[in-house]
User: Fold CoA transferase from Lysinibacillus telephonicus.
Amino acid sequence: MSGPLTGLKVLDIATVYAAPFAAALLGDYGAEVIKVEIPGKGDPARGFQPMKLDESIPWATISRNKKTITLDLRKEKGQEIFLKLLADQDVLFENFRPGTLEKWGITMERIREANPNIIVVRVSGYGQTGPKRELAGFGTSATAFSGYTYITGEPDRPPLSPPISLVDYVTGLFATIGAIVALYHRDVYGGEGQEIDVSLYESMFRMMEVLVASYDQLGIIMERQGRDNSLAVPVGIFQTADKKWMVLTTSTDRTFYRLAELMGRAEMVTDPRYSTNKAREERRAELMSLVEEWIGRFNAKELQELCDQNGVPISPVYSIKDIFNDPQYQSRQSIIEVEHATLGKVKLPSVVPKFSKTPGTVRKTGASLGEHNVEVFSQLGFSLEEIELLQKEGII
Assistant:
């Protein structure tokens, strides 16, 4: 164990992405994370594609740095063991539909009786309150409900959902923030344990702050704008002479001035039709066409070097293969190798952010189902015979 959260104890009874991602982030910084799964079935993520040697690649990465145990929380005996396990934990992550734990008999009163100071992070699709609270919470629908999907894509085509579980990762970040802030309040100021209510849609909606204020004050409804989807001009994705895609960003007047001079259009720096972003917004189509034609003269490598030398922000649009070969990723060890019992070495994203004094580590990939049953339940005082009996009874 190493990292600034060494000694912190986290119990993860959630499934799939958002809440488990939050627990994994705490594990990256040294927290002891115990993941609880249904006996015989486990987390649905264990079956996610792609697979290799009957092992789920997604599971290997999203459940890193966790001990895994099996425990049926729907059965009374399983609940008794759960509450016993909960007694010395600092944080509990759950993401069942609101009311599910209570329906099983795991009420907040019982949780507080077992551990008055625990921080309970409750992740759901629509939150613990409101008319949609009991609806199933899935990332794709929550992303659409947040308003994000509506503005994503080309203006003459249907809206696009993100190709990754973006809302789950964003929600996981907010869940992590909630846990850390609540722990700080508890441990530094002597505050009480509390519940953190995190919803998928609100986490994504929080990123829509400019849209909210713009609609409130100006009645603006942002539509899909494709590559023009930016508050600055010119910003967008352009193709080079060798058919590589590059993204150019001139989000400030200063960076636009550098671009104008590089393009041989220094007069734009002082011309009131182009010298401010507000003026450039009114001439978006003209400027985008000019930039497109200029970028199309160069190969990607020479364009990158030219822009880098002149302080113009531009970047290739990378595939994952490009990322694996990039010296920046290699220099910062953004991709690390971790041992896996079946797959051998597995490459994963490194710990982010990087700490100078107490860096986090990735100590293991996703564990096998119930791999730590004996270790964890023995620490609770169960003998090997009792553990075997619990397994036969389907409790663990």
The longest strand covers residues 32-37. DSSP finds 17 helices and 13 strands in the chain. The CA atoms of residues 341 and 367 lie 9 Å apart. The domain at 9-207+331-392 is CATH 3.40.50.10540 (Rossmann fold).
